[in-house]
Task: inverse folding
């Protein structure tokens, strides 16, 4: 068989191509028959419901927002917005998961709130917006009223406060608060906050036990290692006082205030010219006492230490000035009375010398009320300068020449203007150096070198004796002069001598000794008494425990040293950066120093870089701070005034006429108020019209003591006594104060209101047999102690009625100043021993009470018995 060309094998491919094309066309036709898909539709928005707040609600700065949101695609988050949605509303809160309920802070929405034209709360546009996971949103807008008002606060606080001291803030508001306000100082919360209400005002008292510290308060001190000068001189900075209070509506108010945390209590202009010729020469020595600083002000110009003067007071708390009211003086300022001296309480002594007597007036510090104490004092006239010896004001020593027959006599007055005189008898003595007198602890020491063979005169008020210091010392040394004289305060004195110990040629040595009663040398400092140092130490002062403070320049430091008696090496060494000298210079007395009862110490110093300043130490010479006085001054124009009774020292600048008060109580020097070991009144009871009582005390840790009522400041601040007149029953209170607080103790003195007496009453007439013989016996106890009656006896002085008998085992006690019944006879009747009988008599029976205070008797009123016939027999 043969194949036919055109159809056989060669034609099959063409058939397949046609079929493939047809299939392709069929497929294409089939595609045109399908639906063409459209653009996918948007996901549905979440559902959203806002239940709080609602349109028209009033919300506060912190308000609850509650919403419900859901979506088939899930909710990714829900936001809270404030402000117009078309003008950049801001998000203030956001939830990432349900529940969508929270307190929201709307504080940042205050600037988008719109004022209310009606004067009400501003309006605020809010919105809640929910977002689904698919990106869909739903918004619900609402309008609310916006209450942004927080409580109105007022804060009372001192503008300055000492570091590490108690501090009180009073917050007041007329709005009721949701809770106690929050009060903090430099982030430190108040120790306690208490609230009270005074009418419509709410008062909250916040107490800080300790304010933040300054400088060395926060420095880890190592004894003997210098404190960085920038730490030592940090004496002032601003602390932040913050107060936050929330009203009942939930809104809060916040105050941020600045308080000056400073060692400087105040810096005041002195409004007048001081009666002074130099810092060491005043018409009356200025006095620092717990009430402030009292200064003598000249009443004429030019002002000098010989000027007539009147006192002025710069108060302790804030330096407010009080001048003396001259109308209190008889005849006014020109009435003949002249101010003569200032005592330890800041009182001013005025005198008017007439004939042989001085009329004296003692006025309390300016600003005080009450009449002066007055007295007439015998000669000599009260002439300045006067010396303070504890509570006494003393005249100059009466000795004016040297002689073996001279009697030295020192006259003083106490705060009651009672004259106190000490006379030496016939001793070899001579005049003390005028103005160079140290006193304390009931003794008075004045240099008197070479005048009559002694180095000093020592007057002892406790023993009313005068003793003399030696002119010759051990090892053949002769006293040439006294270069420093410092009272310790307990009746002993630190005395630095200049002595010549050379035989052929001068050999100067400088012993420093402790002098006690009878001018006895109790010991020496720095060097042995038999071999004094040839180097003159700079004695700065003494601490209250009898140790001596010296300084020496050891560039780049000034080294302060603390010496105990009998020691040749210092107990403590404190180097201070810089070179300084004490402001006292060559002054024999250590005027520009402060000594605290706890051993703290301060000194007024001068230096080339510093100028003038106050350097304060804690106990054991621990450096506390260095205050640089901010004005140009030098030791010839400025000084320090201080006392152990005051926790403050005062810088007086006589050129710029400024005074600065500084708190020298060291932080941590006392963690508690002073301890009163005892306080007694002897005797504790007095008869009618009173008498004298001795008040005695023993105290530790106090800087000042006072007794009320009517006594005032007393010294010493450790152990002492004071005699007072007590006309009526009095409860005396001793207040012992230091910078950490006040302790008190009481002691009562009872003055009898009258005698202890017995009274008795009886019926005036009895005419019936069996009639009750009603009798009452009463004890009137006008004494200060209870009276106990143990027995009572009745007797008939006349004997006609034969009224006799004893009531024993009574044991009746009548309290002091009370009246009580001893016997109340209500059931006794008239009877016959052998009835019938007739009774006809008159009697005034006597009653005698036996008591623990003795027997007391009285007679009752007359009793008439007239019974013709009585048949009642006595049992």
Result:
């Amino acid at each position: 068989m043969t194949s036919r060309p055109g159809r056989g094998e060669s034609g099959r491919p063409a058939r397949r191509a046609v079929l493939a094309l047809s299939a392709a066309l069929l497929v294409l036709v089939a595609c045109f028959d399908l639906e063409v898909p459209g653009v996918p539709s948007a996901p549905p928005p979440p559902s959203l419901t806002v239940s709080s707040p609602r349109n028209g609600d009033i919300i506060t700065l912190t308000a609850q927002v509650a919403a419900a949101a859901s979506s088939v695609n899930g909710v990714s988050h829900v936001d809270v917005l404030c402000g117009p949605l078309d003008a950049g509303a801001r998000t203030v809160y956001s939830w990432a998961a349900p529940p969508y309920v929270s307190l929201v802070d709307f504080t940042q929405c205050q600037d988008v709130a719109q004022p209310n034209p009606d004067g009400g709360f501003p309006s605020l546009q809010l919105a809640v917006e929910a977002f689904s996971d698919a990106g869909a949103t739903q918004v619900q807008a609402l309008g609310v009223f916006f209450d942004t008002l927080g409580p109105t606060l007022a804060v009372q606080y001192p503008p300055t406060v000492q570091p590490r001291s108690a501090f009180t803030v009073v917050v007041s508001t007329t709005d009721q608060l949701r809770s106690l306000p929050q009060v903090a100082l430099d982030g430190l919360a108040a120790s306690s906050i208490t609230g009270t209400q005074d009418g419509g005002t709410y008062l909250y008292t916040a107490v800080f036990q300790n304010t933040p510290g300054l400088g060395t308060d926060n420095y880890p001190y190592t004894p003997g290692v210098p404190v960085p000068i920038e730490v030592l001189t940090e004496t002032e900075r601003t602390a932040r006082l913050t107060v936050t209070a929330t009203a009942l509506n939930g809104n809060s108010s916040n105050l941020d205030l600045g308080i000056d945390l400073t060692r400087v209590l105040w810096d005041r202009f002195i409004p007048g010219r001081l009666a002074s010729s130099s810092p060491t020469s005043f018409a009356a020595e200025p006095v620092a006492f717990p009430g402030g600083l009292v200064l003598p002000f000249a009443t004429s110009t030019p002002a000098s230490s010989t000027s007539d003067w009147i006192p002025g007071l710069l108060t302790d708390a804030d330096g407010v000035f009080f001048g003396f009211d001259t109308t209190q003086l008889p005849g006014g300022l020109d009435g003949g009375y002249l101010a003569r001296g200032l005592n330890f309480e800041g009182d001013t002594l005025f005198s008017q010398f007439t004939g042989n007597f001085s009329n004296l007036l003692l006025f309390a510090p300016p600003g005080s009320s009450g009449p002066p104490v007055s007295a007439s004092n015998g000669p000599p006239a009260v002439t300045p300068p006067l010396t303070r010896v504890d509570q006494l004001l003393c005249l100059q020593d009466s000795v004016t020449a040297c002689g073996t027959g001279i009697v030295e006599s020192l006259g003083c007055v106490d705060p009651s203007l009672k004259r106190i005189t000490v006379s030496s008898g016939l001793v070899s003595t001579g005049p003390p150096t005028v103005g160079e007198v140290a006193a304390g602890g009931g003794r008075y020491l004045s240099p008197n070198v070479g005048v009559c063979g002694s180095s000093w005169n020592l007057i002892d008020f406790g023993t009313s004796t005068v003793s003399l210091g030696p002119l010759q010392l051990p090892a053949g040394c002769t006293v040439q002069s006294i270069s420093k004289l410092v009272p310790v305060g307990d009746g002993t004195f630190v005395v630095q001598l200049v002595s010549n110990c050379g035989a052929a040629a001068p050999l100067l040595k400088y012993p420093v000794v402790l002098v006690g009663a009878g001018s006895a040398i109790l010991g020496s400092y720095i060097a042995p008494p038999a071999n004094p140092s040839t180097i003159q130490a700079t004695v700065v002062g003494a601490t209250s425990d009898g140790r001596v403070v010296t300084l020496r320049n050891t560039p780049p430091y000034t080294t302060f040293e603390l010496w105990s008696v009998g020691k040749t090496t210092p107990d403590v060494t404190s180097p201070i950066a810089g070179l300084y000298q004490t402001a006292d210079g060559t002054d024999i007395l250590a005027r520009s120093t402060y000594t605290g009862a706890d051993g703290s110490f301060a000194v007024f110093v001068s230096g080339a870089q510093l100028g003038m300043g106050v350097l304060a130490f804690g106990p054991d010479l621990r450096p506390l701070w260095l205050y640089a006085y901010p004005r140009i001054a030098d030791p010839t124009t400025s000084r320090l005034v201080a006392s152990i009774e005051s926790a403050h020292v005062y810088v007086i600048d006589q050129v710029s006429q400024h005074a600065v008060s500084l708190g020298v109580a060291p932080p941590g020097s006392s963690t508690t108020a002073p301890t009163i070991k005892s306080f007694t009144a002897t005797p504790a009871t007095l008869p009618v019209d009173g008498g004298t009582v001795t008040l005695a005390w023993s105290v530790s840790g106090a800087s000042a003591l006072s007794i009320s009522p009517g006594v005032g400041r007393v010294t010493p601040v450790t152990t002492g006594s004071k005699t007072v007149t007590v006309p009526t029953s009095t409860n005396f209170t001793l207040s012992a104060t230091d910078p950490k607080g006040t302790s008190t103790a009481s002691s009562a003195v009872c003055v009898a209101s009258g005698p202890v007496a017995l009274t008795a009453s009886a019926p005036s007439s009895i005419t019936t047999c069996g009639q009750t013989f009603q009798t009452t016996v009463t004890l009137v106890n006008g004494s200060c102690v209870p009276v106990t009656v143990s027995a009572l006896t009745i007797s008939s002085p006349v004997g006609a009625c034969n009224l006799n008998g004893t009531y024993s085992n009574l044991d009746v006690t009548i309290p002091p100043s009370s009246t009580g019944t001893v016997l109340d006879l209500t059931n006794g009747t008239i009877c016959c021993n052998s009835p019938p009988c007739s009774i006809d008599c008159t009697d005034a029976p006597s009653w005698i009470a036996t008591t623990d205070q003795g027997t007391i008797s009285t007679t009752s009123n007359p009793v008439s018995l007239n019974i013709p016939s009585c048949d009642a027999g006595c049992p």
The chain has a mean pLDDT of 85. The two ends are 190 Å apart (CA to CA). The chain is about 5% helix and 50% strand. The CA atoms of residues 63 and 220 lie 49 Å apart.
